[in-house]
Design goal:
The protein is mainly α and about 140 residues long. It is built from 5 helices and no strands. The chain has one domain. The two termini are about 20 Å apart.
């Protein structure tokens, strides 16, 4: 693991995890307000509606993937070397953190969400690192 910038990976993971979390909170608040404006009032009904709406998870997946791309790209560009490896490490840490979250409670996700989310992470992170390397100015 020589020539790996811990700083670059940490910043990339921060962008990915932090951005995904904050965007998820904002999206959930907006979604809750929309449901409440439609007459859904009780917390149990709100939770049920969110968990049964596949579009809620699709938007969450898109938000998470966007922040993964941002974090992997940032790590690759900050490192200025081994861009694909740095981006891949951001993806790896994201999977580990995601697995810890899922381990706590798998019942809150539809059956397709975890395999799709975890399955997309490595290729998206690695492709982002490749793009960052291609966009980098020659050394």
């Amino acid at each position: 693991m020589s020539n790996i910038s811990i700083k670059a990976v940490a910043i990339g993971v921060g962008i990915d995890i932090g951005g995904t979390f904050l965007a998820g909170v904002v999206f959930t608040i907006v979604y809750t307000v929309v449901l409440m404006s439609q007459g859904v009032a009780s917390p149990a009904d709100l939770q049920h509606r969110m968990q049964s709406d596949q579009s809620f998870y699709v938007v969450s997946l898109i938000l998470g993937t966007g922040f993964l791309v941002g974090g992997a790209f940032a790590a690759a560009r900050i490192a200025r070397a081994r861009e694909v490896a740095h981006a891949g490490l951001v993806g790896t840490v994201a999977i580990v953190i995601g697995a810890l979250i899922v381990f706590v409670d798998t019942s809150m996700y539809p059956s397709w969400y975890i395999p799709v989310s975890f399955g997309m992470t490595p290729p998206v992170a690695l492709l982002t690192g490749y793009v960052a390397r291609r966009l980098a100015k020659p050394r």
